[in-house]
Amino acid sequence: MSSQGKTYLKFGAATVAIFFLLGYLAYTGVQDSKSYYVTISELHKMGNGAYSKRLRVAGNVQPGSIRRVGTHVQFVLMEQDQLLSVDYTGTEAPPDTFKDDSQALADGSFGRDGVFHAKALQAKCASKYAPKQPGNSMQAEPAKS
User: Fold this and answer.
1) Number of structural domains, the chain?
2) What 8-state DSSP symbol labels residue 92?
3) CATH of the domain at 94
4) For the chain, where are the E strands, in sequence order?
5) What is the pLDDT of residues 69-125, one digit of tens each?
6) Residue 28: domain span
């Protein structure tokens, strides 16, 4: 085989190796970022399958359940008659809208200890999405002439 043929062979092998590595990194990146959205009742029915997946669980924050220490927060999510203890240890403090009775979405994993270990937390202010109460709407006064 000529030296030019060996050069093409080495270049081709290096190209194949690079494409294989990029494909592997893309596949593992997608697997790591993939999360399944489940309700609290679905989570409790998943059995051993719940322990090996990245999950997202939503519910309302149970009043009086929030315990904060810096960016570490423990609280309980409610969904109808289902409860789920959540332990949030993210790098950022929970959002300002995170409070009693707010809707929250926890992203993390379910532990064998029965606690959901969240790495990310989103919250909506419950009062912002509640219907307006009658009599509280602002009405424009007629202009005086």
Assistant:
1) 2
2) S
3) 2.40.50.140
4) 36-38, 55-61, 67-69, 72-79, 82-88, 103-110, 115-124
5) 878 899 999 988 899 999 998 788 888 888 888 898 999 999 999 999 999 888 876
6) 1-34
Whether 116 contacts 87, CB under 8 Å:
yes
| The token pair that represents 43 in the structure block | 């989570």
> 27 and 9, same structural domain?
yes
- The number of beta carbons lying within 10 Å of the beta carbon of residue 55 is 20
> Are residue 125 and residue 108 in the same domain, yes or no?
yes
DSSP lists the bridge partners of residue 73 as: 68, 88
> Does residue 57 register a pLDDT over 70?
yes
3-state secondary structure of 126: coil
CB burial readout 101-111, b (16+ within 10 A) else e: ebbbbbbbebe
pTM beyond 0.70, yes or no:
no
CA distance 44 to 52: 14
